[in-house]
Amino acid sequence: MKRFFLIIIATCLFSVSRLFAQDASDIETAFQKANLSLMSDQISSSVDLILPSEDSSVNHDECVILVTRFLRSVSPKDFTIIHQGNRGETKFMVCSLTTARGNYRVHLLFKKVNTQYLISQIRIEPSNE
């Protein structure tokens, strides 16, 4: 009986990690190509957005426009996920963004909406690395 439960738990964890991996791939592509519309389906209807020149709550469409505009202004060279995890109804990613104008740390916070995790906060700040 213990083995049965361990198999069920392992299967669930594997399924969740595969879903998060697909999200991660879309996010990496969107940031590298400076086009947040490539991950638009992962963004909540309301987002807390913190950029070097912006700090406000914006709707989905404004978020896509503002982050894409910022990314195009700094010309991304590389985007790497450093760490990701979850706690209860939230998930997070800590990422590194290398650009022609310097390095940035990117924090993404996902909250569960119905059955899907959507980005509710994007924080992009200069990195000291």
Sheet having the most strands: 6 strands, mixed
Helical content, roughly? Answer: 25-40%
Can you tell me the residue ranges where pLDDT is under 50 for at least 5 consecutive residues?
8-22
Strand order of the largest sheet: 2-1-6-5-4-3
Structural class: alpha+beta
DSSP strand tally: 6
Determine Rg (CA atoms, Å): 16 Å
β-sheet strand percentage: over 45%
Report on the architecture of this protein.
By secondary structure, the chain is an alpha+beta fold. The protein has 2 helices and 6 strands; from the N terminus they run H-E-E-H-E-E-E-E. It has helices at 2-32, 60-74; strands spanning 43-51, 54-59, 76-87, 90-99, 102-113, 116-126. Strands 2-1-6-5-4-3 form a 6-stranded mixed β-sheet, covered by helices on one side. It is globular. It starts with a helix and ends with a strand. The model is unreliable at 8-22 (pLDDT under 50).
Keyphrases for this structure?
single chain, six-stranded mixed beta sheet, alpha+beta, 129 residues
Summarize the SSE layout with pairings.
Layout: H1 2-32, E1 43-51, E2 54-59, H2 60-74, E3 76-87, E4 90-99, E5 102-113, E6 116-126
